[in-house]
Design a protein that fits this description.
seven-stranded mixed β-sheet; Beta Polymerase, domain 2; 355 residues
């Protein structure tokens, strides 16, 4: 249960690594700003929150529980309990995992807790230890900084997923293997997990940014609106990724069906060509004495010629119906769409001014 506690006094002096008694004294004094960050929270930490800050048992239970809770904000009068989500970069998984950050926001304190280590919280810690800057502008600004860094760390994952989508789209067209389908399904699950936390998180940040809670000052609401804009952008990008995943799945199924149709077409052509030839070979392979053609001197060559004629005619028929594309001119690659400048309004007048 790694716990770090900072207290910025009214005189601007920053104290670090506070013990439990020092934390309780700073909290009860209601002077300055107290920030307690609990990583990998346990039942013991939950008891610490109840006896030191007297937080509501339901809020503490949400912090300690390993279950995933929807983003939300609960108003307990003297403080707010906020739940937001980011990306869990500590998990080794091929599917995106989310991490939960719980915040208790009061007029003179911020208590943050999370089940997994978060790079965003570590970054805020480093800023506080360097010059105390996030804490010098109040508790609501410190809470904004924690939420903002957590949300901003989602964008690298979304950008990486966009690159993965391009690779999957290439594979679905050129070599749709069984593993390609597995990658598409993993990709869809990742986008679904991001959507499950970002959609309600957008509503939560909207509530924090529109002046519903007096604890968040008017001058800080613009910063929460900025985080709200970031969440909306992430949600829009994730929606486009979900659409690309659906399109990739449809393209994969279409590519597999086309390959199967191509295989069946080749087998059909082979069967169509050789079935009449096999019929001729079967007829003249019978051992009867009264077959008139057996005594003709040119019968063997006539049958061979007929076989060549039937086989060649079948091949020509398939070629005429475009079933055989070998040797045909292929359609050139489509060039990117570009507008001829001569067709633009004002282009000629622009040239006249240049001359």
């Amino acid at each position: 249960m790694p716990t770090m506690a900072y207290h910025l006094g009214p005189d601007g002096l920053l104290r670090r690594d506070l013990g439990e008694e020092e934390v309780r004294a700073a909290f009860e004094s209601k002077q300055g700003l107290l920030w307690v960050d609990i990583s990998e929270i346990t039942e013991e930490d939950g008891a610490f929150l109840r006896r030191t800050f007297d937080f509501h048992p339901l809020a503490v239970e949400d912090c300690v529980s390993i279950e995933v809770h929807h983003p939300k904000v609960d108003d307990f009068g003297d403080y707010l309990f906020i739940v937001v989500h980011g990306i869990n970069y500590a998990a080794e998984s091929e599917i995106v995992e989310t991490a939960e950050l719980g915040l208790f926001l009061g007029p003179h304190f911020v208590v943050s807790n999370h089940t997994f280590p978060l790079y965003s919280t570590q970054h805020v810690r480093s800023m506080v230890e360097r010059d105390g800057r996030p804490m010098r502008r109040g508790a609501d600004f410190l809470a904004y900084t924690l939420i903002d860094t957590l949300v901003d760390n989602v964008l690298p994952t979304v950008d990486k997923m966009s690159e993965t989508a391009e690779e999957i789209e290439e594979e679905t067209i050129h070599k749709p293997l069984q593993m390609t389908l597995v990658d598409i399904l993993k990709f869809k699950r990742s986008t679904l997990r991001i959507h499950r936390v970002m959609a309600p998180q957008r509503d939560t940040l909207n509530r924090l940014s529109r002046g519903e809670f007096p604890i968040i000052r008017a001058e800080s609401q613009i910063f929460y609106r900025d985080v709200f804009d970031h969440v909306v952008r992430i949600e829009d990008l994730n929606e486009s990724l979900r659409d690309r995943a659906d399109n990739a799945l449809a393209t994969y199924l279409s590519s597999v069906a086309n390959r199967q149709n191509e295989t069946m077409r080749v087998l059909s052509m082979v069967a169509t060509i050789f079935l009449p030839l096999a019929l001729l070979a079967g007829i003249y392979g019978m051992n009867f004495d009264n077959m008139p053609e057996l005594h003709y001197p040119w019968a063997y060559f006539v049958v061979l010629g007929f076989i060549v004629l039937v086989g060649g005619g079948a091949v020509y028929w398939f070629f005429a119906r475009n079933w055989i594309t070998l040797g045909r001119r292929k359609v050139s690659r489509v060039k990117p769409f570009a507008v001829e400048p001569e067709k633009l309004i004002g282009y000629l007048s622009h040239l006249g001014k240049r001359h």
